[in-house]
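Run log // design_07
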């Protein structure tokens, strides 16, 4: 559960940083920068989620499968 709370905190931090950076970007003049920022934050969150799944959920699932078979 501790690792999950760390993951939630990291994703929340990414969204806070994204919101702060969006305040400094003039959307009418630089729409491409907003798209790049959104993609970068999405990829960062996806990376953290996949890392969590591969490090914590896959071992648990394989252990459950080994016990039952």
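design_07 sequence
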């Amino acid at each position: 559960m501790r690792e999950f709370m760390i993951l939630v905190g990291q994703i929340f931090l990414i969204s806070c940083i994204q919101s702060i950076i969006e305040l400094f970007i003039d959307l009418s003049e630089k729409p491409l920068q907003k798209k790049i920022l959104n993609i970068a934050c999405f990829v960062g969150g996806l990376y953290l989620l996949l890392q969590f799944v591969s490090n914590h959920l896959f071992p648990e699932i394989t252990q459950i499968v080994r016990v039952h078979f």
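Residues 31-68 form the longest helix (38 residues).
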